[in-house]
Amino acid sequence: MQAGMARAAHTYYQTQEQPQSTVGLVVMLYDGALRFMRLAADAMRRRDMLAKREGMSRSMAILSELQNTLDLEAGGDVSKSLDSLYAYVMGRLVDANVKCDPAPIDESIRLIQPLRDAWAEV
Description:
Layout: H1 2-15, H2 20-46, H3 49-68, H4 76-99, H5 103-121
């Protein structure tokens, strides 16, 4: 499923005719989301609540930005799938935060990494 979603995301973003600077920005957003998710998961494991809060807050803000930039009308099924994926990941991050459990963050990283890699190939 992840590889299929990554290919679909790659196709969606290619059809949006993004300038190279936008592609680089999206890769940077994915990199940031992944970095802050890892920071939050590591902080949970260390019981560092300040670092956990920082990582959770920043990763959720980045994912919200990615979700808000989707063109749900022009992007068709792919943009709707990405929207659903981002909503799912955000829900998993909330679960992780409430339960102070890094496992949902680890799952989220596994879901987002292929999208980041697809963008980097663009």
